[in-house]
Prior knowledge:
single chain; four-stranded antiparallel sheet; 21% helix
Amino acid sequence: xxxxxxxxxxxxxxxxxxxxxxxxxxxxxxxxxxxxxxxxxxxxxxxxxxxxxxxxxxxxxxxxxxxxxxxxxxxxxxxxxxxxxxxxxxxxxxxxxxxxxxxxxxxxxxxxxxxxxxxxxxxxxxxxxxxxxxxxxxxxxxxxxxxxxxxxxxxxxxxxxxxxxxxxxxxxxxxxxxxxxxxxxxxxxxxxxxxxxxxxxxxxxxxxxxxxxxxxxxxxxxxxxxxxxxxxxxxxxxxxxxxxxxxxxxxxxxxxxxxxxxxxxxxxxxxxxxxxxxxxxxxxxxxxxxxxxxxxxxxxxxxxxxxxxxxxxxxxxxxxxxxxxxxxxxxxxxxxxxxxxxxxxxxxxxxxxxxxxxxxxxxxxxxxxxxxxxxxxxxxxxxxxxxxxxxxxxxxxxxxxxxxxxxxxxxxxxxxxxxxxxxxxxxxxxxxxxxxxxxxxxxxxxxxxxxxxxxxxxxxxxxxxxxxxxxxxxxxxxxxxxxxxxxxxxxxxxxxxxxxxxxxxxxxxxxxxxxxxxxxxxxxxxxxxxxxxxxxxxxxxxxxxxxxxxxxxxxxxxxxxxxxxxxxxxxxxxxxxxxxxxxxxxxxxxxxxxxxxxxxxxxxxxxxxxxxxxxxxxxxxxxxxxxxxxxxxxxxxxxxxxxxxxxxxxxxx
Length: 653
């Protein structure tokens, strides 16, 4: 799935809807099924949708090399899904009865006998097993050996102007393995790369905001600019601080003390420790304790050019600084992926689960659903389920391109937040007023109209759509139990047919770059120097760590007892005052909202002038923030009382 820099949504998708895979959360089914008549176990979803007869360019050469990952289902995949549901459901007698990582592995992990049997099968087919861990085996060999092992031919197919290898049919494994194989990845070679979720500058191209600014929403309005929506629009804020975000989302006295938040991204910024420390000092934030921020990094990195590795530095910086701003006493552990590709990001997630590095995991990356294949989806779902039984919750950005039509031509949701086992975090535009008082939020969706040459009007007002919070109805997953009775049928059935499906997001927080967060980062200047500077940033890459920080506060309020997979609890509180019910028109129907934004033409100084534009808020492509659940903000954003509303189970430990 993840190969284009997702922040800018580079990856255009020509693929049709993916085949439906029943979610274990909804139906208790697996992605693999047995075909006893053939003596083989079907690994469904391993033939990609784009591998059509029309695109077939013939057989791949037998001598071509193949590298695969064979994911292990464990000894009780159905039991894992069932217990993950039970332990996360406040209405279940098993709620909060979490297992340790060792107990999870013992109860549901692959056995030595299963690993040995899968290894023997791969070797007997002519593949060489090059590595193994508790989750998967890696194997290499030629096409002929792979075809023998997986019972399908490999052909070359044209896709989006490129040629990729893919199986002509779904892969299979011997039925004699008794379901030990969950899925296989690597048979198709189309890029599946993650991107980060906002327009972050690479370190070699400094970015700074021009100003003037508002220090809080509405604090600075310039009368010389034309009216918008019947009045003068204020300048965009300089960037909210931790105090403003904590006040908006009802932090109260809670600071995240005793709670650890993990952050996963690709690569790692070499400047993160010094940047985070300076940012906290310069903005009046809390100083980091020794050891409060730590990193778990791979031995080496790969695909640095394909993934624009330096572009991920700003992502880590945003995530770390946002979590610390909202939950200043929480420990933060950054777990870096060796690349932006699925296999390496899955490895990072598995490190969190296998070593129980944290109870809360913030992930500001993803891709569009059409780029996700069910084989990779099964691997993500498994790690999310394993995390759930340990009391670990995963929070994913919902995306920054609204319904994705403008960027891909296809209305679709984002992934991995589409998984029923993950919490998808949508985005808002946030107005925090004087004295840190919460004023309102609207769904994040922006239209841009530049100032006319004569300065008397906004050209093409309100202007074209630029970006907005991702959301929508999955074509891959059925509706999970916790969305029943909350998500309107108009959304759950939006893809047609009679089967209700998973809808994103689940919850939301500030994401609009025009009402965004101030970050501090070391960047490269045109003269080649490295300098620390601050700038305002947004995207659902901001919303995810903000919600992760709020969840750390809530876990502290539960006396440290893990929230775990949060969606059942999030939906159980739907419709109560602990949420801000966010709509497109918080000031009333017909009351438009906008800010004036001033940008450097060259993105870093005034030497080439500035560009003034009006940014209309609350216009997210075809998505709408409405009363009740919606596909921009989910159930809403945390309000006063949210942090203390999650009482722990009486029997929790």
